[in-house]
Amino acid sequence: MAEIIPSILSADFARLGEEIARAERGGATMLHLDVMDGHFVDNLTIGPPVVESVRRCTKSHLDCHLMIEHPERYVSAFAHAGANSISVHYEACHQLDGVLHQIRSEGAMAGVVLNPATPVSVLEDVVEVADYVLLMSVNPGFGGQDFIPYVLDKVRRLQEMRREKRLALPIEIDGGVHLDNLAEVVRAGCDWIVTGSAIFHSENAESTVRQMREIAANATAVQI
Ligand code: DX5
Ligand code: ZN
């Protein structure tokens, strides 16, 4: 079944522990942490100390999405802070292959992220050294943006590439996913579905996660 991964970007940071507990009561076992540096994207968010605090309050898988320049300088800090998976942007890496190996050597799963405008074809070779691929379905930087529909075609192309190469890597999608488009995203073939404002800006984060997990369980990926 596709995993629903709450992004804490839209949570109340002053009550982060409670927000996480709510999402987990709804069934979440993975959490998405957005790291932004004010350079690669305009926004500024969290660093390793926050990841470390989150690590202390949950056993969930911590998925760190680095929207930063020179990610190679920070991989080790995030791994030591307790990240289980770390993804870096194709657009931010001068030596993507090297950074992916670095993440793995720190004991975390290594992910590559593509901005909406970056074609899946750039992954043709390097996908072999990635543990998952994250396709952005909004331009990175902020929560609460509209889903970009052509990204679903990218999901299908990536599925095809994965099948041809006989790779089992999960396909993650991030941005603009809410209750109304979730089933379509699952049917397109996404395995890890990040969603922030739809959960933490809802009246009841716990029941929204539960509802999303039900939708994901009922919508089966369509084989292309
Ligand atoms: C955007 C972030 C997302 C964000 C998604 O740059 O990478 O993880 O939290 O938020 P929603 O679900 O509100 O689009
Ligand atoms: Zn993200």
Output the keywords.
224 residues, binds D-xylitol-5-phosphate, 19% strand, eight-stranded parallel beta sheet, alpha/beta, 8 strands, binds zinc ion, TIM Barrel
Structure description:
The protein has a single domain, classed as TIM Barrel, CATH 3.20.20.70. 34% of the residues lie in helices and 19% in strands. Strands 1-8-7-6-5-4-3-2 form an eight-stranded parallel sheet. The chain is globular. The mean pLDDT is 97. Bound molecules: D-xylitol-5-phosphate and zinc ion.
Low-confidence stretches: none
User: How many whole angstroms does the radius of gyration measure?
Assistant: 16 Å
For the record, what CATH class applies?
Alpha Beta
Our count of helices gives 8
Secondary-structure-derived class: alpha/beta
CATH architecture: Alpha-Beta Barrel
Range of helix content? 25-40%
**Largest β sheet strand count, sense and barrel closure:** 8 strands, parallel
- Please provide the ordered H/E string of secondary-structure elements: EHEHEHEHEEHEHEHH
Strand line-up across the major sheet: 1-8-7-6-5-4-3-2
Bound molecule types: D-xylitol-5-phosphate, zinc ion
The CATH topology comes to: TIM Barrel
